[in-house]
Structure formats: structure tokens, C-alpha cells
Design goal:
Largest sheet: 9 strands, mixed
Radius of gyration: 28 Å
Number of strands: 13
Helix content: 25-40%
Number of domains: 2
Number of helices: 13
Oligomer: single chain
Length: 420
């Protein structure tokens, strides 16, 4: 009996091994080109509109040093990673992806994509096909971030990162930490963009990516040209640009209609409940702004109000924070009247930034705040009547905004410095 059980066990083991050996869909790394960012532009070729797909590839450089260098006691230096931008065209984005194989001996592997860069030409014509490509392709991570760039995506992807090996990594990290440090730009991934496109009463808002030439001589991407004798030359600086994010681009449907500056973007994020950290500067007993308040723990409530067939929204923003800088001889946190005055000025500034955001969005006819979505959820019967006309109604909707921020700390000192 025991021998029979052993035979059955080994037979089952052999059968299992037959089904688990090997990788039926394996792709070897030396046959792949791994990319970290994709750029989308529209160009004219022979009178026809084509899609220009720009790929920021990850190109491992050769390890530094050979066998002789490693003999001294180590495993050699770690490989560094550099990026290279390669562009291909096609009638559709998938056609462009397939055309990649006409100029590369390696298959394009998109599972490490962290950034979609949309050029201005595509943003103005419509981003629906870009998001369809991002959600339909099984290799592309749905949490890849989406931005709109100034000019063409191909040029933006060729900017040089200052702190990370790849531009895509640098922009991705900037956007992700922005919510907690500045709240002046919006990190939107493919899934959220698709949700905003498909949700009635809500419009898309994406971070705006710019490039610029850093003015500092010590910048890693802008070195002063040297003369033959090795001294700094006063000649023209090399035009190496670096990336930065500034504000947001808002859409009506799938088409971009305008931009919000950094203050307006911060106001938009306050209303949306996505501003979790940043600075509010106010003028305390001065004509110029001289005091900084670091806000955090922000909570926003939006209430729909319908009276006499008129739609309005009540936005209540609450938060806490600390005083982190003040001009000498201005504020005394131990004085309750100074604290109340400071809080009043902070609340006034928050409301002002939110009001600017609402006014600009209504002027553009875009609802990135999701007020229409809020109305749809709370009053579906009312929404059903006006759904097809929300774009015409929203610019005239009244939005009441209140702010209630409290100063809880003042750093390591209670009073501003009194200079003798």
C-alpha cells in the first residue's frame, strides 16, 4: 500500500513539473527597450496629420572599469542609467508603436512607464485617444502620471534632469511630493484622468510642465564654456533646459481651454480637498508680504444649495498650521490679538486664491472642481434637467467660500526678533 502511494505521489509530482517548467511568455531583457516616459504630439507630414510618439528609453551605460579594476577588492562600480529620446510617427498611436520595430532591433517594453507628456497640439485637439491608449494597453501602469507640456512633448522629454538620472523620475517625484510641500500643481494619473473624462459634471485638470535654462553657472546641466587656456569664457551658454511644473491646464471635455497659475491652482486644490501642505504669505503690519504660514491638515466640505430654482455651492475650508517666518518686530504669538489678526489674514488670503480659481475656471467654461458631479450626486433629479446645459450654467453659478485656519505653533520662538 505504501509503495502504491509513493508511485501515485511521484506520478503527480512529474505531471505538475511538466506544467510549471519554463516561461511560455518570457521576454529576455537583451531583446527589449525599456521606456520610462511617452510623449504625444501631432505633426503635419505631406499634408496629412500624423501622431508623433516620443519614447524616453532607459539606456544602461557600460560598467566603469574592467577586471583589473575589480581585482583590488570589490565587485566593481554599479551601472548608471541614462535616458535617450527616440521618436516615431504613425497614423494612430498603436501604428506608431508598431513602427518602432522598423527603427529598433529591440521590442518596446512599456511596463516601466511613469509619465505621459502631452504636447500642446494634442491638448488643444483632444486627449481622449491618449487616455484610451494608456488604459487599453496592458503593459502601461495605470498609475503613470499625465502632464501637459509647453510646446512639443518631444522637446520637453529632451530636457536634462538636475537631481535624478531620468527626466521622467524627476518630474514624477516633483509632482508626488508637491501635494505636501507646495500644493501648486496637481499630480493626476491615467485612471483619475479617465474618471474625469467619463464623469458628468467634472472636467480634467493636469499639471503644466515647462522647461527653462537655469541661470546658475554651477548648474549640472549648464556649464560655462571654457577657452583654450581653461579659463571661463564669457561666450554664449549652452542651451540645456531643465524641467519644472507650474500651475495646471484645465479642459472642457477632452480639449484644453486654458491655464491656471500657481496661486489659482492652489485655490483649486483647496476646493478639491487635495491641498495638504504649503505656504500662505501675508502682509502683517506691512505693505509687502512678510510673514509665512505653513498650512496642513486641510479639510474641505462642499454643499449644494438650491433656492428658488437657483443653484449655488457653499465651500468650507478648515485647516491648521504654524508660523514659520516673520519680519523682525511684527508678530507676538503670545499675544492673542496678534494671533487672531494673523488667522484673519490667512483666511482672507485662502478665500482670495480660491475665488481667483473659481473666477478663472468660470471664465474658461471648465469645471475641474467637480461642482456638477456634486450636484449630480446630491440632487440627481435637478441634474437630469440641466445635464446637457451645465457648460452654459456653470459660469453663472454662485460659489460661496469660507476659510477657517488656526495657528497652532510658531517654531522654536514665540516672538519675532527685535533688532537693536
Amino acid at each position: 500500500m505504501i509503495m502504491l502511494l509513493r508511485k501515485i505521489f511521484f506520478s503527480l509530482l512529474v505531471i505538475i513539473l511538466l506544467f510549471t517548467s519554463g516561461c511560455w511568455n518570457r521576454r529576455e531583457m537583451d531583446t527589449l527597450t525599456v521606456n520610462s516616459a511617452l510623449g504625444f504630439d501631432l505633426i503635419e507630414t505631406n499634408g496629412e496629420t500624423k501622431i508623433l510618439l516620443s519614447v524616453l528609453t532607459i539606456k544602461p551605460s557600460q560598467a566603469i572599469g574592467g577586471a583589473g579594476d575589480m581585482a583590488g577588492g570589490g565587485a566593481g562600480q554599479q551601472q548608471s542609467v541614462t535616458g535617450q529620446v527616440i521618436s516615431i510617427t504613425g497614423d494612430t498611436v498603436e501604428d506608431a508603436v508598431r513602427n518602432w520595430n522598423q527603427c529598433s532591433s529591440r521590442q518596446l517594453f512599456m511596463a516601466h512607464t511613469v509619465l505621459f507628456v502631452i504636447g500642446e497640439s494634442v491638448a488643444k485637439e483632444g486627449i481622449g485617444w491618449v487616455i484610451d491608449f494608456g488604459t487599453r494597453n496592458r503593459d502601461i501602469p495605470e498609475r503613470a502620471l499625465v502632464v501637459v507640456c509647453e510646446g512639443t512633448a518631444r522637446d520637453a522629454l529632451q530636457a536634462q534632469p538636475e537631481f535624478e538620472p531620468l527626466l521622467s523620475t524627476e518630474v514624477y517625484n516633483i509632482l508626488n511630493q508637491n501635494r505636501y510641500f507646495t500644493s501648486k500643481s496637481k499630480a493626476t494619473d491615467i485612471i483619475e484622468t479617465m474618471y474625469d473624462l467619463l464623469t458628468p459634471g467634472r472636467d480634467v485638470s493636469l499639471a503644466f510642465l515647462k522647461t527653462f535654462v537655469p541661470p546658475e553657472k554651477g548648474s549640472s546641466v549648464r556649464q560655462t564654456p571654457q577657452s583654450i587656456d581653461g579659463k571661463d569664457s564669457e561666450g554664449e551658454q549652452p542651451d540645456h533646459k531643465v524641467p519644472t511644473v507650474a500651475g495646471a491646464v484645465v479642459f472642457r471635455g477632452e480639449k484644453a481651454v486654458g491655464r491656471l497659475n500657481e496661486a489659482e491652482t492652489q485655490g483649486m486644490l483647496f476646493i478639491m480637498g487635495e491641498a495638504q501642505g504649503g505656504i500662505i504669505s501675508v502682509a502683517f503690519d506691512s505693505t509687502g508680504k512678510n510673514t509665512s504660514f505653513l498650512f496642513r491638515d486641510v479639510n474641505t466640505k462642499v454643499k449644494t444649495v438650491i433656492e428658488k430654482n437657483e443653484i449655488s455651492f457653499q465651500v468650507e475650508i478648515k485647516g491648521t498650521g504654524e508660523l514659520i517666518s516673520a519680519a523682525p518686530g511684527t508678530i507676538d504669538i503670545t499675544n492673542r490679538s496678534d494671533i487672531q489678526k494673523m488667522e484673519h489674514m490667512i483666511n482672507k488670503e485662502v478665500v482670495y486664491r480660491c475665488r481667483k480659481a473659481v473666477n478663472k475656471a468660470q471664465e474658461l467654461g471648465s469645471d475641474p472642481f467637480g461642482f456638477g458631479d456634486k450636484l449630480h450626486r446630491t440632487h440627481p433629479d435637478v441634474w437630469k434637467k440641466i445635464e446637457n446645459h451645465w457648460g452654459e450654467i456653470f459660469p453663472h453659478v454662485k460659489v460661496n467660500i469660507t476659510a477657517d485656519f488656526s495657528v497652532e505653533h510658531s517654531g522654536l520662538i514665540d516672538k519675532s526678533l527685535h533688532i537693536r
